[in-house]
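chain below, 126 aa
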Amino acid sequence: MTIDDVKMGEILAPGSEKEQENREKRVRAKFWSTVKKAARSVPAMEEFIAGYYCALDKNTPASVRGTLLAALAYFILPLDMLPDFIAGFGFTDDVAVMLAAVSAVRGNITDAHRAAARKHLQEEEA
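prediction:
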């Protein structure tokens, strides 16, 4: 199954307030460990991390938070359309979903979110 087989809108649907709360809990618990696994495979990691900070920012509109949380929840799932453990290809579908989400909400990802992402990446490199 490829990402084309699934409607992107279904994956990125913001969902109800309860779904968003559940996604936020899962994302908070697993995001950083997934980032470490994916760091070498994902070319736009800074944007993904900025999206993470945007999704957790209570000043971000609910629909934007919901879209980002849906994409981030998909990102942290180890078994999705392309299981993440498949070397070189496992994060391909995750990248497509995250790029679609970030593109859809780009105007809501602030300079502060991007600065926090850069800071985190710099600290990881040190």
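Confidence is low (pLDDT under 50) at residues 82-88. The radius of gyration is 14 Å.
thats it, cya
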